[in-house]
Amino acid sequence: MIYIHIPFCHRKCTYCAFYSKPLASTTEARLTAAAYVDALVDEMRRRRDEQAHPIHTIYIGGGTPSLLPLGQMARVVGALRKCFDLSQLEEATIECNPEDLTQEYLLGLKDIGLFNRLSIGLQSLDDEMLHLIGRRHTAQQAVEAVERAYSVGFHNISVDFMYGLPQMSQLPAFDFRLVNHVSAYALTVEEGTALAVQVRQGRVSLPSDDELVRQYYAMREHLAKAGFEQYEVSNYCRPGYHSRHNSRYWNRTPYLGLGAAAHSFDGSRRRWNVADVKQYIATQAFEEETLTDRDAYNELLMTALRTTAGLSLADVPERCRSDFRRKMQRYVDCGWIKLSTPHSPHYTLFQPTAEGLLHADGMAADLFEM
Fold first, then answer.
1. Residues in contact with 304: Cβ distance below 8 Å, sequence separation at least 6, in sequence order
2. Domain segments of the chain: what residues?
3. 170 DSSP assignment
4. Mean of pLDDT values over 7-28
5. CB neighbour list of residue 92: distance below 8 Å, 6 or more residues apart
6. Is the pLDDT of residue 168 over 80?
7. Could you say which of 5, 89, 142, 238 has the lowest number of CB atoms within 10 Å?
8. What pLDDT shows up at residue 246?
9. How confident is the model at residue 220 (pLDDT cuts 50, 70, 90)?
10. Which own/partner contact pairs does 250-256 have at CB distance under 8 Å and 24+ positions apart?
11. What are the backbone angles phi and psi of residue 335, rounded to the nearest 5°?
């Protein structure tokens, strides 16, 4: 699997903590984007042997990948085809913002030919709320973008929504028939963001924890009625339309990350590229660390307990099983974890319930091997 980071955006959303760089519509900006793609293609060539086996999923995220001109996107895709074996590709996703999805751009993506899945960041269908969190599109543009994407032939569409927004009183009145996947995230305040400053200064008030929980259950029920099943804390899909790429992250599948700030994982080491466009273009510098057995186990807990699939006792190292069983029993007793034994007691599955998913991070932290 391959992840490519396109770090450019029109402007920074107030809540965004991902590495991104606003890119103005100027000649200098176009040259920066072209130089970035040059560096990206060079990194693909240098690291192609790290993914010598066939690639099953590709995900282009950001930032705002749909801000990249079609000609530059075609260069990225062309390099992917030259450097990697895509004969077994199942899913290729590109993140898009609604305001970028003109008829011309969508047809251009179709002509490039790689992408069979779009992830469109709607976030809200309340114009006042969209303005507050720094989004550039309107609710009408959001709906029209999804309809336009479907009409040109993109029939595997994921949309992002947020809950826990300031003064949020109702769920999005959206026709889910054109989409197969929904990512529904709780708004979180990350240090270093504009939102963190606004909250600290009292300019923005966020819902209470109780209200956040109410909205989580309301969103879950709303999506269930529309035919979506929850398979991870923040992700819902129609049967068979889970994100194959993201699911592999949660299974700790090795992947190659390309671009500024992109992370890679080879099964034992994690590597991250420099989070600076100019430095990436000039040096492609990176850092890396080798995971200990303890690190690997703790990562397994963090990812598996955020999914409805949970984890099997067989996945827990022998040295940790006694403590794991003992601590897990309290979560079974309080209804956060359900047990099933599809094969034998040795393969007992520990699966978070809807309530348990809300406490996934806390359960994982309690189970960590210190």
1. 250, 310, 311, 315
2. 2-250, 293-370
3. S
4. 76
5. 57, 58, 59, 60, 114, 115, 116, 117
6. no
7. 238
8. 93
9. very high
10. 250/303, 250/304, 250/306, 250/307, 251/303, 252/296, 252/299, 252/300, 252/303, 253/1, 254/1, 255/1, 255/2, 255/3, 256/1, 256/2, 256/3, 256/47, 256/50, 256/51
11. 90, 10
The Cα–Cα gap between 117 and 240 comes to 13
| pLDDT band for position 128 (cuts 50, 70, 90) | confident
- Better-scored residue on pLDDT, 306 or 133: 306
Residue among 213, 224, 237 at smallest CA distance from 356 = 213
The yes-or-no verdict on residue 134 having pLDDT over 80 is yes
Mean pLDDT for 88-113 is: 96
* Peptide bond just before 164 cis, omega within 30 deg: no
How far apart (Å, rounded) are the C-alpha atoms in residues 215 and 200? 23
CATH match for 293-370 among 2.10.70, 3.90.1570, 3.30.70, 1.10.10: 1.10.10
Buried b (16+ CB within 10 A) or exposed e, 124-157: bbbeebbebbbbbbbbebbbebbebbbeeebebb
Digit-coded pLDDT (tens) for 310-349? 999 889 999 999 999 999 999 999 999 999 876 666 678 9
User: Got the DSSP string for 67-118?
Assistant: GS-HHHHHHHHHHHHHHS--TT--EEEEEE-GGG--HHHHHHHHHH----EE
Chain segment 83-93, per-residue pLDDT in tens: 999 999 999 99
The model's pLDDT over 36-51, given as tens digits with 9 standing for 90+, comes to 999 999 999 999 999 8
Averaged pLDDT for residues 129-134? 85
DSSP state, residue 255: B
Q: Does domain 2-250 have CATH number 2.40.128.130?
A: no
Contacts of 82 by beta carbon, 8 Å cutoff, 6+ apart: none
Name the token pair of 369.
């091997």
Collect all residues with Cβ–Cβ distance below 8 Å to 48 and sequence separation of at least 6.
83, 84
Q: What per-residue confidence (pLDDT) applies to 179?
A: 96
Beta-carbon contacts of 33 under 8 Å, excluding residues fewer than 6 positions away, are 8, 23, 68, 69, 72
Separate counts of helices (H) and strands (E) for the chain: 13, 17
